[in-house]
Each structure stands twice: as C-alpha cells, then as structure tokens.
C-alpha cells in the first residue's frame, strides 16, 4: 500500500473515532481554491435589488434584498438595510457594514453612519433577516431565515470539508463584495469613497475581503483577524489541523495585497482574537494602517459603535486621504519605550498599557500607567518606563475622546515598522 494512501486511511480512521469531519486536501486543489477566492474581485456588476416587504422602511432607510451567488444550484439573496444621510449636498461617502456572530443586518448601525454623513449598507451574511424566530427558538437560531438563504456559519470554518463554493466564508466574502458594488452604484454615493467595517466574525470577513477587493477606500477590521491556527483558544483548537484554513482562507495569505488605509480596532482584553495575532495582521498589509486598542472596551457590536474612533478615522480618509493620526516609529532602549506619531489633531495625553503576565493576551492583566508626551519638530513623542518584567506593551495617545495606539510589542515579538 502506498504511503499517501495509508495516511489518508489513517486520517479517516481518526476522524471516525473522534467524530470530526475529515479534512483531506492536496496542494493542487488548495491552489485552485485560492485562485477561485481571488477571482471574487470580479463581482463588480451591480446586483439586482428589491424591496423587502413588511419592514418599517422610508425613502432614506430601506430594507432590501439583493441577488447573490447560487448555493447548491439555487439562487440566493442577501437581506440588508440600506440608508442615505437625511440631507446631502453632492455625492456622499459610503460604508459596507458586516456583523459578527449572532448578529444580523442592523438598522441602527446604518443610522449611526447616516448621521455622520455616510451612505451605509448593513448586510446579513447567514441568510437571515433582522427579526427573531417565531415561537420556540431553536438552538443557535437568533434570527429568522428568509426564502432565499445561502449557507450559515458552521462553527469555526467547520464546513471546510465541502466544496469551496458551498462554504459559508466563500458566500460571506462574495456578499460583502457585492454590497460594495451595489452601494457605490447609487447616484448619491461617491464610489471612490466607500469603506468597509466588520465586527468580530465580520472583522474576519473584512480582513479577508481587503486582500481581494481593492476598490474599498478604507477598512476597519474590528476584533476579528487572521493567523488564528496557532492561537491557544477555541480558534487554534479548531484550525490547527485545518489545511483549508491555513492554505486557502487565512487572511494573512492576501493581506500584502491590501493597499487601502486600515484601522485595526480592538482592546487588549479580547479573549477571541489575541493582540500578537492582531499585530501580525496589520504588520502584513501593504497600505498605511492605524491602530486603536482601547482598554476595557469589551467585545460585541455595541462597544465599537459607541466609540468615536471608527467615524473619525473614516472622516479623515474621505476628507484628507490619510488617517488623522498614525505611528511613525517606535523605539526601546532598555526599559524605556517611546513611540512617535504624526497627527492632524492636537494630542493631550499618553498612556502606557503593559502586562507582566504570559499566555494568551486576553487572559492577562493589563496595567495602565502614565507616559510623557511632547511635540517636537511637528511630531508627537510619547515615552514611558516599562515596569520590570514586562512581557507586552503599547502606548496610547489621546485627542479628546479619540485613541491611537502604537504597534503592539512583546519581549520576543516586534511588528514590522509602520508604513
């Protein structure tokens, strides 16, 4: 018996014993799948849309469906809320919004961006609408499904053993790109100023899409990121032996193609997406990036909605073509750590966030301590003394209620220099 055949049978036997779905892939098929994913950038035609009946819509804020890719030979549609600012003069910027696990197309998220002067479309990427199921709710059924659904998420890339075009992530990425094509086609919208924001699983989708669709003017991956196969939590356990994730889906495979400005938005206590992995993602992008790590922010849809940071970042990109603030360099000399920033807004204070703990970053205790801040030769220099035994750290600078972070640092890890 050939060795490759023996390995295949052994893998199948182990899967039967463990109850896991077998993940068998060869280099040729994985390469073909990667190419098919990259070809999703061709979804530039405007998808047909129709009104979603029975929702409290207005001419400015509408519930809609738009046509998406076929799934298992059947046509699918995506439910979304599509909104425009109340008053516009000329064309307005826009943003595509992608929910996280347990979420849907959120009407109020669209309204928040409309209030900031943006056209916005919030999409539901699991074949659902924004209504709870009637009667007794089945486990995991947070929202009603409509008549034309695509696949739902199966755990953490749990459908990696089915054909690529039947996988949830394939459709979620396609839905996001199609939403971009739809939003930028509206006569009220400036197609050159359409951004993307995704939260948690939506952040994973965003991190994936920005390596494929270069039409986005900016992107805001929130919490979610790639490089998760070695995380010491549920992601690493699910993905450590998943070749489809590691060689086909990991956003890190394509982040060097992401040319648009990005804001990487999270908090050091996040238990799902660790800071070291998050840092490797923004260190890999080709375009300029900005980081905002806000202590005690929490994980969910609400916390980033309520913070002003995503809106201020988007405003600076569509107005000035660059982030209002960004780190230009970091330096460590013994226990002295400094970070230099360029900012179009005045900075008032700086804070060192550090830990002496080890293990996954979301389980560590993070301590805030004072840092100095001075303006010199047009740049802002923040500096602090690291506590003895520090294992990880970064500096936050503040302009009123806005927060910008230096690159996350570890004693044995340094991200690539800012671009």
Plain-language structure description:
This protein is an alpha+beta fold and 419 residues long. The protein folds into two domains: 298 residues, Rossmann fold, CATH 3.40.50; 87 residues, Sandwich (Immunoglobulin-like), CATH 2.60.40. Helix content is 25%, strand content 28%. Strand 17 and strand 18 form a beta hairpin. The termini are far apart. The N terminus and C terminus are likely disordered.
Note the topology:
Blueprint: H1 3-18, H2 27-38, E1 49-51, E2 61-71, E3 74-83, E4 92-98, H3 107-115, E5 119-123, H4 168-185, E6 189-199, H5 201-209, E7 218-222, H6 234-239, H7 243-249, E8 262-266, H8 275-284, E9 289-293, H9 302-306, H10 309-320, E10 325-333, E11 336-343, E12 349-355, E13 367-376, E14 379-385, E15 392-399, E16 402-405, E17 409-410, E18 413-414
Parallel strand pairs: 4-5, 4-6, 6-7, 7-8, 8-9
Antiparallel strand pairs: 1-2, 2-3, 3-5, 10-11, 11-14, 12-13, 12-15, 13-14, 15-16, 15-17, 17-18
Helix pairs in contact: 2-7, 4-5
Q: What class do helices, strands and sheet pairing give?
A: alpha+beta
What is the CATH C-level name of the largest domain?
A: Alpha Beta
Q: Assign the CATH superfamily of the largest domain.
A: Alpha/Beta hydrolase fold, catalytic domain
| Major sheet: arrangement of strands | 1-2-3-5-4-6-7-8-9
Put simply, the count of helices is 10
Uncertain residue segments: 1-23, 414-419
CATH topology of the largest domain: Rossmann fold
Strand coverage percent: 25-35%
Number of domains: 2
Distance between the termini: 53 Å
